[in-house]
């Protein structure tokens, strides 16, 4: 192998190593993403709301339900499906929580069973 061929082989080997290292670093969730692990799991919800909590003259009420949160997008975000039951009503929503590297904020998007949506950023974890 001539000197120019060896030099070219060396340069290509270095370039491919750098590309692979960059690609691998982007496929690993950051420590900020890993903080979302606290919301992953299946949870049973049981709550009591005091009278007036939902607005003036609203009665006290109990509700119960489940929250099922799991990793998605290869460990870069969490999807939660929530179902709550209170007297006379069932409430459900699906939410998506992730860490946005460019703005360095946690983001939350949700849609409920009536079509209502919610978008939040810079959540506390």
What does this structure look like?
The protein is of the alpha+beta class. The protein has one domain (29-121). The protein is built from 2 helices and 6 strands. It has helices at residues 3-26, 31-34; strands at residues 41-49, 61-72, 77-86, 89-100, 105-112, 117-121. It has a 6-stranded antiparallel β-sheet with strand order 1-2-3-4-5-6, with no helix packed on it. Strand 5 and strand 6 form a beta hairpin. It is elongated and about 50 Å long. The relative contact order is 0.13. Mean pLDDT is 82; it is low at 14-25.
Q: How much helical structure, as a percent, in the residues?
A: 10-25%
Enumerate the spans where pLDDT stays under 50 for 5 or more consecutive residues.
14-25
> What sort of overall outline do the alpha carbons produce when their principal axes are compared?
elongated
Overall pLDDT confidence: 82
Tell me the number of strands.
6
Instruction: Give the strand order, joined by hyphens, for the main sheet.
Output: 1-2-3-4-5-6
Major sheet = 6 strands, antiparallel
SSE series? HHEEEEEE
Please tell me the total number of domains: 1
Q: Radius of gyration, Cα only, in angstroms? A: 24 Å
Strand content: 35-45%
- Assembly type: single chain
The helix count comes to: 2
- Give the CA-CA distance, first to last residue: 57 Å
Indicate the structural class. Answer: alpha+beta
Mind sketching the topology for me?
Blueprint: H1 3-26, H2 31-34, E1 41-49, E2 61-72, E3 77-86, E4 89-100, E5 105-112, E6 117-121
Antiparallel strand pairs: 1-2, 2-3, 3-4, 4-5, 5-6
